[in-house]
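sorry for the late reply, my laptop died twice this morning and i had to redo everyting from scratch. anyway the thing you sent over, i finally got around to it. pasting the sequence first so we're on the same page, its 279 residues, then the predicted structure underneath. double check i copied it right bc i was rushing
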Amino acid sequence: MHNVKNYILVLVILFAYSSCSKEDLEAEIPSYISIEKFTLTTNNTTEGTNSHNITDAWVYVDNDLVGVFELPAKFPVLKEGNVKLDVYPGIKENGISERRARYLFYEAYSQQVTLEKNKTLVVTPTTKYTSGTTFYWMEDFESASLPFSYHSLSDTIVYKTSTDVFEGVYSAKISLIPGMDFFECYTPAFSTLPRNGRTIFMELNFKCNQPVLVGLYADSDQIGIFYLNTTDTWKKIYLNFTEPIITRPNASEYKIFFGFQSKVDYPEFVIDNLKIVHL
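ok and here's the structure:
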């Protein structure tokens, strides 16, 4: 009886194998898409700088998610022929690699494309701010005055520099010398920021030789939220203020602050292109 069962099992396996065509046994040949980087286009007068830090591409083909790819990227797609390609810009929220997200303020790049097996389609996506983006506050430090106020214990103030500039003529710089220990400045008071769960971000370009704390004043309640990490080259970062504001909806006004305690002999912090945007 045992031998009969084994014989039947062999027959079943042979039948299943013989019923498969050669095509069924061969791996499907993919098409490929290659994306080097995104380009951001802005109206400088109304939308500010076109600098960005789009690190990822969220790729959809015929509305199906193919994957999320760190740029530059080349990846296979198991489709061919004429398809709809959507590429959404992705960022590292708050500068954290583990918090990769689609940036809702940038439009998707959409195009009808033709995919061919074993061939690579090179895509050069462009994006712009969505029509639903509100530019609540912007500061590029090109005007005569500076917008900051200071903590009563701050040892220094922000000054404009034309020698350490990201773009344009000026950036804003903070420097401490030995004997100085503490710095804190904050933006004007914002009384009309949405507090009903709408997405709110601050964008900025920066560099610093020690960590800088960024946070929120909700009336007199001070909340430290983010750290800008040390970098000797200019970086762009996207800071998500949605949750801190949602959790303090009854504040009459909000201010964003930058501050640090001296940890090196000559702390320096340079910023440019501050934008507060919301949907």
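The first strand starts at residue 31 and ends at 35.
thats about all i looked at so far, will dig more tmrw
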